[in-house]
């Protein structure tokens, strides 16, 4: 009972399943417990285990694992190590590699040989132990020359860059740097390995001096760039690979010409280290948070379009974490920003004075709206075009820009062929504001599901025309002859993961005529297509919740009510509303929507048909 109460308090849940509670209780019971303590578990073990699996800073986790009194190496320390091993085993690591590292650390951190470990000794020792930091979840600011380690399993022979011995075991587990792919045993990570690749030059005189940055070994049996012969890497740490252009060479071919690095096939998107140099600290624009790289300046490489990448690691079931690591390897790490660590401000400030660059947003529609809103507030001298790499589900904006509805890492290589278009910021700014009011997406989806199912049964909005009025540019819509249960205001042709509510339009005879501020005539609406850049909103009516299934399959479209540049909605009673799938119950109010701004967006090229029947 006490353990269940602890779980409810620690995990902040109202009701914890009894069977799951019993299983967790047994899992924390150790085999060496005496009969006197068979019905007990140590809560410190439980909190230590949970803190290892949660997000957070390594220092906070180390302090959480520490008790108030000094640790005795025989008792509390052994239990903490046991829970660390338990957590590592849960994460799928080879604990046989980690156990001796942790034991050596526990011996080393007792600096005064007193037989006990103080809080300062525990934190200082833990913060300097690379395998332990990886286990705790390394979330520290990367310094130039410092490796960004992560635990990785290899399915082929790999050699340690420090001791040059093979990583052994069935899963061949080791630590691998995300940025340069430098690979080591867990026990070798603390033995002063070679520094990570540089991300900037130290002085202005080195600007424009393009040189390779070689990392030894693990060349995957590729061909040498100079002699075109295969690099045999099965029997040792042979061959070298350039971090920037990914060229492979034999050890004896490294010094051959050319020695200049051209950054390989992604040269148009890479901001190489010889284009970044330190400067005297300068003030940045006030509206955004203090930047991380405010003491560096950019001297752009001619005829290139450096890519500024923003990644939301929590998008798409944490697919963003893998995408973040991929871009940190493909590009300069100073081009890639984790939105959960400081937001978009530091990246926009770093690229602020660059004249020709592009932005790639990796995340959902809400993330895109966040970035576009930040660009608008930053008052940048040059507004860069924005591309989208969709993560997760839905992604209606990405679908409209032909980037698809789900994560696809190959699309980062197709940015050269992208076309330029414009898209209104109106709805996207609203998404950004509301997302912060209700950050729990799962709770919102359940809430929205409850609205939909209860509405299908009760039809509480059946007489919607009696509950609200809609005015478009001063023209009030006549809803008296319509039986509507929902109203949708559209800015893009996709909604709820691909539903086209407006539908396809017939061929228009308007030609090059200017678009009026408002269109309410049903015949004109039939031939009025949606356009992402026309500064107009489309207003449609829905006859019921079941109708959405027919719209999604393309069998029908919603009722077209108006095409307008401004809309005012006045409600007379509380009504459920949603923006981009995020629902809330809105009391009686007046909603006024108008055009705010536009942003340049990158559109993917039209997909080519293939096959005998021209199937995509």
Automatic annotation (TrEMBL):
Organism of provenance: Astyanax mexicanus
What is this protein identified as? Answer: Diacylglycerol kinase
Q: Catalytic activity, per the record? A: 1-O-hexadecyl-2-(9Z-octadecenoyl)-sn-glycerol + ATP = 1-O-hexadecyl-2-(9Z-octadecenoyl)-sn-glycero-3-phosphate + ADP + H(+); 1-O-alkyl-2-acyl-sn-glycerol + ATP = 1-O-alkyl-2-acyl-sn-glycero-3-phosphate + ADP + H(+); 1-O-hexadecyl-2-(5Z,8Z,11Z,14Z-eicosatetraenoyl)-sn-glycerol + ATP = 1-O-hexadecyl-2-(5Z,8Z,11Z,14Z-eicosatetraenoyl)-sn-glycero-3-phosphate + ADP + H(+); 1-octadecanoyl-2-(5Z,8Z,11Z,14Z-eicosatetraenoyl)-sn-glycerol + ATP = 1-octadecanoyl-2-(5Z,8Z,11Z,14Z-eicosatetraenoyl)-sn-glycero-3-phosphate + ADP + H(+)
Question: Which protein family is named in the record?
Answer: Belongs to the eukaryotic diacylglycerol kinase family.
Signal peptide interval: none
> What would be one Gene Ontology cellular-component term for the protein?
plasma membrane
For this UniProt record, give its keywords in alphabetical order, as a comma-separated list: Acetylation, ATP-binding, Calcium, Cytoplasm, Kinase, Lipid metabolism, Metal-binding, Nucleotide-binding, Repeat, Transferase, Zinc, Zinc-finger
**Group of enzyme by EC:** transferase
Q: In which pathway does it act?
A: Lipid metabolism; glycerolipid metabolism
Outline the subunit composition: Monomer.
Q: Where in the cell is it found?
A: Cytoplasm, Cytosol
Q: Which residues form the EF-hand domain?
A: 97-132
The family database entries (Pfam families) matched by this protein are listed as: C1_1, DAG_kinase_N, DAGK_acc, DAGK_cat
Q: According to the UniProt entry, what is the EC number of this protein?
A: 2.7.1.107
Which stretches make up the DAGKc domain? 302-408
Q: Which residues form a coiled coil?
A: none
């Amino acid at each position: 009972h006490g353990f269940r109460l602890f779980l409810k308090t620690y995990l902040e849940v109202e009701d914890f399943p009894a069977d799951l509670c019993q299983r967790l209780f047994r899992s924390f019971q150790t085999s060496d417990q005496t009969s006197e303590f068979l019905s007990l578990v140590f809560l410190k073990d439980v909190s230590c285990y949970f803190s290892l699996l949660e997000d957070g800073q390594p220092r906070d986790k180390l302090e959480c694992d520490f008790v108030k009194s000094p640790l005795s190496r025989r008792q509390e320390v052994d239990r903490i190590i046991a829970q660390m091993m338990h957590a590592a085993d849960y994460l799928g690591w080879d604990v046989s590699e980690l156990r001796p590292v942790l034991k050596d650390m526990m011996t080393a951190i007792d600096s005064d040989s007193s037989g006990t470990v103080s809080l300062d000794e525990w934190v200082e020792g833990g913060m300097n132990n690379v395998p332990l930091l990886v286990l705790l979840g390394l979330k520290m600011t990367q310094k130039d020359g410092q490796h960004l380690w992560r635990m990785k399993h290899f399915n082929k022979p790999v050699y340690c860059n420090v001791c040059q011995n093979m990583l052994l075991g069935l899963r061949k587990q080791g630590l691998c740097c995300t940025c340069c792919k430098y690979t080591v045993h867990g026990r070798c990570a603390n033995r002063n390995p070679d520094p990570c690749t540089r991300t900037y030059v130290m002085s202005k005189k080195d600007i424009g001096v393009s040189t390779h940055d070689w990392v030894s070994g693990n060349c995957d049996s590729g061909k040498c760039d100079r002699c075109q012969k295969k690099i045999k890497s099965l029997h040792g740490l042979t061959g070298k690979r350039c971090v920037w252009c990914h060229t492979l060479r034999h050890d004896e071919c490294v010094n051959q010409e050319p020695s200049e690095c051209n950054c390989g096939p992604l040269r148009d998107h890479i901001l190489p280290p010889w284009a970044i140099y330190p400067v005297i600290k300068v003030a940045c624009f006030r509206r955004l948070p203090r930047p991380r790289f405010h003491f560096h300046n950019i001297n752009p490489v001619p005829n290139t379009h450096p890519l500024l990448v923003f990644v939301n690691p929590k998008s798409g079931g944490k697919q963003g974490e893998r995408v973040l690591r991929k871009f940190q390897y493909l590009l300069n790490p100073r081009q890639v920003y984790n939105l959960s660590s400081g937001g978009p401000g530091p990246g926009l400030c770093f690229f602020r004075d660059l004249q020709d660059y592009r932005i790639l947003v990796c995340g959902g529609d809400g993330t895109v709206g966040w970035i576009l809103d930040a660009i608008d507030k930053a008052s940048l001298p040059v507004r860069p075009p924005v591309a989208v790499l969709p993560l997760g589900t839905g992604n209606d904006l990405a679908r409209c820009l032909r980037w698809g509805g789900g994560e696809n890492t190959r699309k980062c290589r197709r940015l050269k062929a992208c076309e330029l278009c414009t898209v209104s910021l109106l709805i996207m700014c609203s998404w950004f504001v509301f997302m912060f009011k209700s950050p729990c997406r799962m709770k919102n989806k359940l809430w929205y599901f409850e609205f939909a199912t209860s509405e299908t049964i009760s039809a509480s909005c059946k007489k919607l025309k009696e509950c609200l009025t809609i005015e478009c540019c001063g023209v009030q819509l006549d809803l008296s002859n319509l039986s509507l249960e929902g109203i949708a205001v559209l800015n893009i042709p996709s909604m709820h993961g691909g539903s086209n509510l407006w539908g396809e339009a017939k061929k228009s005879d308007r030609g090059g005529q200017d678009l009026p501020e408002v269109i309410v005539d049903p015949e004109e609406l039939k031939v009025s297509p949606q356009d992402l850049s026309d500064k107009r909103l489309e207003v449609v009516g829905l006859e019921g919740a079941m109708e959405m299934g027919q719209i999604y399959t393309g069998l029908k479209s919603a009722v077209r009510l108006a095409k307008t540049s401004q809309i005012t909605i006045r409600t007379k009673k509380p009504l459920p509303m949603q923006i981009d799938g995020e629902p809330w119950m809105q009391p009686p109010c007046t909603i006024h929507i108008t055009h705010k701004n536009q942003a340049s967006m990158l559109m993917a090229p039209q997909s080519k048909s293939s096959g005998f029947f021209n199937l995509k």
